[in-house]
Design brief:
The protein is of the alpha/beta class and about 220 residues long. The mean pLDDT is about 95. The two termini are about 25 Å apart. It has 2 domains: about 130 residues, Rossmann fold; about 60 residues. Strand 9 and strand 10 form a beta hairpin.
């Protein structure tokens, strides 16, 4: 479970903050979608939750702030943007490097490659991956330490409908196994299709926090 309280980004040059006093919950066993148009504050909210940008507020992951978690990657799997890594490194080599860095057995790399359908691409170089393959690798990186919580920023951006449907199925499977899933999108129809709860942002403020059925009836 994620509990975010009073997320407020540091404003610059007298501009209003990109995120202003946003609070919400994302429950275990559910997919929670943070919805908003470009500039609504979705990415900034995630970065505040993960202590990746300056601001105020506090976020608890199963009752603990991130800095109190001994091995954060084992609690929270994160996908923000493209997968960082040397373009000449192989997919499998990249995952095995992350295993070593996070203290995860090397065999886990092959397990997540199979889970995300990248076994046949394990020797491909990062610099040659398509957008869809990069998203699969990003999800593999997030899943590598077997975290309870997934935090994903617009993971279906640039994907084909079939690739997006596959990713939605992976997120649903994680939630069905008791995990917490928080993801963002700018597409209200995608939010209605995949979410159990929709948290809507506009101009950095929370404007609605609804079960998916209510969202579909009242806001879609």
């Amino acid at each position: 479970m994620i509990q975010a309280f009073g997320l407020t980004s540091t404003s610059r040059k007298a501009r209003p903050p990109a995120v202003d006093d946003v609070s919400f919950e994302a429950r275990a066993g559910r997919i929670t979608v943070l919805l908003g148009a470009t500039g609504a504050g979705k990415t900034t909210a995630l970065r505040l939750m993960l202590a990746l940008c300056p601001g105020r507020g506090i976020t608890y992951f199963r009752g603990r702030p991130l800095y109190r978690i001994a091995h954060p990657a084992r609690e929270v799997g994160v996908l923000l943007g493209d997968v960082p890594g040397h373009p000449a490194r192989s997919v499998r080599g990249h995952l095995r490097m992350l295993c070593a860095a996070s203290g995860v057995p090397g065999r886990r790399a092959d397990e997540v490659l199979e889970a995300v359908g990248l076994v046949s691409f394990r020797e491909e170089r990062l610099g040659t991956l398509s957008r869809g393959m990069d998203r699969r690798l990003g999800l593999a990186c997030a899943l590598l330490p077997d975290p309870h919580t997934l935090v994903l920023d617009d993971p279906t951006r640039g994907l084909s409908p079939g690739e997006a449907q596959w990713l939605h199925g992976m997120l649903r499977a994680h939630a069905d196994q008791g995990g917490t899933v928080l993801t963002t999108t700018g597409d209200p129809r995608e939010a209605a299709r995949i979410a159990d709860r929709v948290v809507t942002l506009d101009a950095g403020r929370l404007v609605a926090d609804q079960p998916a059925g209510e969202f579909a009836r009242t806001r879609l």
